[in-house]
Amino acid sequence: MLTVGEANAAILAAMPAAKQEMISVAAANGRVLQQAVVAERDQPPFDRVMMDGIAIAHTEFAAGRRQFPIQALQAAGDPALELQGGNCIEIMTGASLPDGSDCIVPVERITVDDGIAGIEAGYVAEQRQFIHARGSDHAKGAELLTPGTRISPMDIAIIASCGLTEVAVSAAPTIRVISTGNELVPPGEPIAPHQIRMSNGPALVALLEKHGFTDSRHDHIVDDEKVLRTRIADHLDAANVLILSGGVSMGKADYVPQVLADLGVDVVFHKISQRPGKPMWFGIGKNGQAVFALPGNPVSALVCCRQYVVTALNAAAGLRAKPPEFASLAQEYVFKPQLTCLLPVKLVSAVGGQTLAMPAPTNTSGDFASLSGTDGYVELALESTTFKVGTGVPLHRW
User: Between the CA atoms of 206, 210, 214 and 220, what dihedral angle is there, to the nearest 10 degrees?
Assistant: First the structure.
């Protein structure tokens, strides 16, 4: 069996890179950027006034002048006026700095009487106060966003400020989530005592959506080899990523690996030395489709989807990898099997700012209800069995 690290490496090596497409900026939130975004102009593009008040020449204030006739009013969006000696210009926040002025006195520090602005006694004004200097945020031509960025609402503001109406992003994968099993019954339908509700499919679709992969649809296929072969073939034609849940263990009704082989999907590996999720299967279709066959137990399916599927889809999209995250165990935990333990946890913060992981083990790999309220899972190395309080461990958030 592959280790967790070897399995991730094998998947990433086999995953085809996503194509690129141009989309409108309005539709780009959450997508992975595939171009550099450079500044259209200096930011700010002019000396920008930061306070409502009056614009004056500081040399006149330094010389003792405290009364300034109001020459004019300049609002944000108006062309810059030229200040005449001895006067002030009434100014609004966001306006460009009038030519000849180099100091803004806030409106709270002045009084206006018969068209003359007076500065309050004792007020100390500094040269270039409340002026946001041209180009102080960034210069024209500066690279503000790089390829591999997951576009956020803040990035939308940057892209729009650069004058772009479209950007190049990674094409979103078309995903099919397939639940297998005769025992599964959708919510809302009558259910017999020997059957169970279908939960994996909706949960996997929701987990994918949380990570920005929204083009996914769910299907349920019974444990019939012919039916599986026909329906999976259809999904291989329609999608470039298949995620199956169930049918990959060693039972007589676990047809999925053979069906995938019959359909020309080349196996990359089957089984990982971990718990939960040991039976996981991964392969590549003849047209480059990525096929993830996850165990049917709900906890296993969700952990494997987060650990391998989400990671692979991010890499295929060209998303720039984040530095690994770690937490310290808040309680001692013992895990005896010689397998990597992917342990659900709830996160708490210590007074000193340290992230602590409180173990939240499930009763079994079918105990999906215990995952509610967890923040993710930690990775406990297969070489150890006892993990003491304070042990630093890799953290994977849901």
Answer: -20
What was the pLDDT predicted at 252? 60
Reported as a single tens digit per residue, the pLDDT across 45-55 is 999 999 999 99
Q: Are strands 392-397 and 53-56 parallel, antiparallel or unpaired?
A: unpaired
Q: Residue 232 and residue 178: Cα distance in Å, rounded?
A: 8
Mean pLDDT throughout 197-213?
Answer: 96
As to burial, measured by CB atoms within 10 angstroms (0-12 exposed, 13-18 middle, 19+ buried), residue 346 is: middle
Residue 369 reports pLDDT greater than 90: yes
Give yes or no for a contact between 280 and 248, defined as CB atoms under 8 angstroms apart. Answer: yes
250: pLDDT strictly greater than 80 = no
Percent residues over pLDDT 70 in the chain: 99
Average pLDDT rounded to a whole number, residues 370-374: 97
| Alpha-carbon gap, residue 34 to 28, rounded angstroms | 11
